[in-house]
Design a protein that fits this description.
Protein name: Fructose-1,6-bisphosphatase class 1
Helix content: 25-40%
Bound molecules: 6-O-phosphono-alpha-D-fructofuranose
Family: Belongs to the FBPase class 1 family.
Number of helices: 8
Shape: globular
Cofactor: Mg(2+)
CATH architecture of the largest domain: 2-Layer Sandwich
Structural class: alpha+beta
Subunit structure: Homotetramer.
EC number: 3.1.3.11
Amino acid sequence: MPKKNQTLGEFIIENQSDFAYSSGELSRLINSIRLAAKVVNHEVNKAGLVDIIGAYGETNVQGEDQQKLDVMANETFIQTLTNREIVCGIASEESDDFITIPGCNNDHRNKYVVLIDPLDGSSNIDVNVSVGTIFSIYRRVTPLGTPVTKEDFLQAGNNQVAAGYIIYGTSTMLVYTTGRGVNGFTLNPALGSWYLSHPEMKFPETGRIYSINEGNYVHFPQGVKDYIKYCQEEKEDRPYTSRYIGSMVSDIHRNMIKGGIFIYPKSSTATNGKLRLLYECNPMAFIVEQAGGKATDGFRRIMDIQPTELHQRIPFFCGSTKMVEKAEEFMAKNER
Ligand code: P6P
């Protein structure tokens, strides 16, 4: 039973026994993520003070301008995981292909792979709006002691062992699940310790917040347009409130506390949506479902989808179950 104000270290040790045959590898993996998160948090929090803000001058595989903090965050998480030889492979939004951890051929028998968006919402860095890190952890499916293959990363979200995010906001939080509910830990920067501030987080079954970039309205499918109009109708439980800050981790974190729906749909300009299935939608879907919410592409459950490409994009509807189901009704009506 999680105890409020328990430290993350105590929580990990207390719950390690939940994993049959646990070698402690997953605990060490979560511990290395929390260390990397503290390093990134330190840089994000002082970004305004040193010349680290601003574009790095290169673009990533997504064709997006890489902010310097993106690169720093990517290198920090990859280095921390590699140095500890806890995983056998890493895939990152900022890296074109997956990374095989040296020594993964017989030197060690590490069984986990990590997929990560090291700094989601980084376009907000220059304007001091919250950003986040998203991570997803799987057991490898190829034989231990051999180099990882793409197969180890292209697994359906149902296979996730753990998933989480760090939100670098007014306070810095680590929110994660290992399939037994969702718990949120807040960093005390003075002590460098994380404390259980949000035990057993639950997504409200419904809410009054809808989060979508309405600037793209004219490009949306008719079902999405109809749902937005439904949200804006003057009815007993509406209009809803529109809240969208362009940082998915922050938008979904807020909605998980207050109730709401986040939608990044496909459009005529983004035929598969913008968000990536493997290291954005699957981990957020795992967390949302573990908290009692729902996550689909408007039709299919996100974690049932079989990935085909490392950086593939997918439309994303997630949040309070009743709100996602209402949005799906409009999608279904217009699909026929
Ligand atoms: P748009 C940030 O770049 C991100 O990947 C998500 O965090 C965010 O929800 C979305 O893109 C914002 O995209 O097209 O609305 O600016």
